[in-house]
Design brief:
This protein is of the alpha+beta class. The chain has a single domain, classed as Pnp Oxidase, Chain A (Roll).
C-alpha cells in the first residue's frame, strides 16, 4: 500500500532548483512487466501552453529513452536528498545491463499511468506533450554544444504535462 496522497500542484512550495540540481530525481517509464529509471539533475518545472509542465532531458544513449518513447506517461520521483547513493547508482548504470531495483532496493509503485518509487517524498506523473531533438545548430553559444555534446550524445527534450502530484504523508 502506497503512503502517498494526491496533492494540489498549487500548494507546492518546493525549490525545484535544489530538488533537481542538487538532490536529483528519477525519471521512470514503462509497465509493471518492464520499466526503467534513470537519474536526472537537469530539468525544470513551469507553465507552458497554460499547463503545469516539466521539462525533461534524456540523452539518446539512455535506456530509459526507449520507455519514455513507447509510453504516453512517465514519472519524476523526488527523494529530498535521501537515497543519493541509490540515485548515483541509477545514474551510472544502465538498466540494459543490471536490475536497478534489485541492486538499489528501491520499491517500485505502479500508478495506472507510470511507475514511481515508494521511497520518494514527491512524485509528478507526467503526460508527454512535446518532444524535440537537441542539435548543434540550435545553440546560440557554440561553446556550450562543444562542452556538453563533444561525443554527439544529444538530449531529447520532453515537455510533460503534470497530470498528478503525489506527496508522501
Amino acid at each position: 500500500m502506497s503512503s502517498f496522497q494526491s496533492a494540489d500542484i498549487r500548494t507546492l512550495s518546493d525549490n525545484f532548483f535544489k530538488r533537481i540540481g542538487s538532490e536529483w530525481t528519477l525519471i521512470t517509464a514503462g509497465t509493471p512487466e518492464k520499466f526503467n529509471t534513470m537519474t536526472a539533475s537537469w530539468g525544470g518545472v513551469g507553465i507552458l501552453w497554460n499547463k503545469n509542465v516539466v521539462f525533461t532531458f534524456i540523452r539518446d544513449s539512455r535506456y530509459t529513452l526507449e520507455f519514455v518513447d513507447s509510453n504516453d506517461y512517465y514519472s519524476i520521483s523526488f527523494f529530498g536528498g535521501e537515497h543519493m547513493k541509490e540515485l548515483a547508482f541509477c545514474g551510472k548504470n544502465s538498466g540494459r545491463d543490471i536490475d536497478k531495483v534489485k541492486a538499489t532496493g528501491l520499491t517500485p509503485v505502479f500508478d495506472e499511468n507510470a511507475p514511481y518509487f515508494e521511497e520518494a517524498d514527491l512524485v509528478l506523473i507526467c503526460r508527454k506533450l512535446y518532444r524535440q531533438s537537441m542539435n548543434a545548430e540550435s545553440f546560440i553559444d557554440k561553446t556550450d554544444a562543444e562542452k556538453w555534446y563533444a561525443d554527439s550524445d544529444w538530449h531529447e527534450v520532453f515537455v510533460g504535462e503534470i497530470v498528478r502530484v503525489l506527496k508522501k504523508q
